Amino acid sequence: MSNVTVCARFRPLSSKEMRDDRDGGVCVRGIDAESFVFQDDKEDEFTFSLDRVFYEDSAQAAVYEFLALPIMRDAVNAINGTIITYGQAWAGKTYSMEGPGIQDCDEHKKGLLPRVVDGMFEQIRSSKDIARYTVKLSMVEIYMEKVRDLLDLSKGNIQIKENKTQGILLSGVTEVPVSDSTEALQHLCTGLANRAVGETQMNMSSSRSHCAYLFTIHQESVKDKRAKTGKLILVDLAGSEKADKTGAEGRVLEEAKTINKSLSALGNVINALTSGSPNKANHIPYRDSKLTRILQDALGGNSRMALVCCCSPSTSNASETLSTLRFGMRAKHIKASPRASEVKSTKTQEEPSSETKDEKRGRILEKMKERMSKEDIKMLEEVFIQEGIIFSPDSMEEVDAAYEDTVSKTIISLQQTVEELQLKVKELEAENKGIKEQAFGNLEYDRLGKMSRFISSWYASLFTSA
Ligand SMILES: Nc1ncnc2c1ncn2[C@@H]1O[C@H](COP(=O)(O)OP(=O)(O)OP(=O)(O)O)[C@@H](O)[C@H]1O
Ligand SMILES: [Mg+2]
């Protein structure tokens, strides 16, 4: 069992923070590469220790090498990985993820995403004698609780599905095959241009949505044709913000409320995952937001995960920084147990197949999807819905949700009943013991009485006979 890698990253003071706070007040004092002292609004001091702390002069390359490179390497070897940037608005999440731009930016300032793309194709190149790789890229944003396909804006409400073998899936999302880093970066740029951005007093170009970059890395061994797949997801979250600080109103306020709600849902999932007894089934509210649902596999442990807690170093943002750090500390306790994806043989038909029913169905459907046009699939789906063979995607999602929630609630209520029964049994045992003791006492008393009566009558008979 390995834990989640959690790092803190402090950006330099912004010009606004320097202007607003004449002393240039800073709430963080570094101790070393893993610990620092944080001072809150009341000047109370707390020492935090995380996997790594990146201070304002840390290089983008250092962040990449410490937390993203190992996860990227594993994903190329079919172990799923997730990298998330978290923090209040204007804390440096997008800067850490992308840098000032995806393409043509200063080499030193390049963010995690372009570095991951370069590193991934470099590793694939160096392994080309061992395996043949195909990489597919998808990009979505969660805006106002809708999952939008950033590579095809006509898909404005992508449904999230769950498959026994593949885990969480984005139904019908665009997956573009990418063969090198230049091609991948071009697609990423197109997608990013479609991202929803807003303007607040905190940030001139604030991310108004959570953005997820998904890479599916499929490999087929040259030697025995065995195939495996790794999923790598990078998530640039939208920032939490207080409306009074940002001056948000109207649509921007609505966006902020939705962002805050989904971030609270993320906090609730992490709380549920890190509290309670490990042997007890705990209801994890993944379905409370699209964000937690998409991240279900990563948060649930079937993925390596790294979290960059982006923070402002300014005393004026101390309370937000403290809450970001507490979130990171909590996430550190999530237990992760990532596994290499199931290895499937792509050998010839004559060989005995170890394919399960689900896998076989999935493979046939994939093949059909490749052969059929989008229109064919749509028409088939319409016929199936009409005939009642399948539910419409919306109701399917709802049925799934209701089923899973009911199962989980039933398990929890059964556990409560068992606990109550155990308590009752203990109470009854104690009561029974009392009754037994009393009964035993009475019995003894009775026996003693009988014995003393016998002795006195025997004693009396001695004298009578004498
Ligand atoms: N480590 C850093 N070094 C230099 N500048 C930084 C650093 N981190 C952030 N910045 C700058 O701070 C500003 C805010 O950063 P960014 O846009 O990444 O914040 P954010 O957390 O994504 O905000 P939002 O939640 O509003 O999207 C930007 O101007 C960015 O260039
Ligand atoms: Mg941002």
UniProtKB/TrEMBL annotation:
The GO cellular component terms are: microtubule
GO MF, one example:
microtubule motor activity
**Region Disordered, residue ranges:** 336-362
- The keyword Cell membrane is assigned to this record: no
What are the Kinesin motor domain coordinates in residue numbering? 3-334
Any keyword Secreted?
Answer: no
Q: Which chain positions lie within coiled-coil regions? A: 411-438
Q: Which PANTHER family match?
A: CENTROMERE PROTEIN E, KINESIN-LIKE PROTEIN
- Name by which UniProt lists this protein: Kinesin-like protein
Task: Tell me what organism the protein belongs to.
Answer: Thlaspi arvense (Field penny-cress)
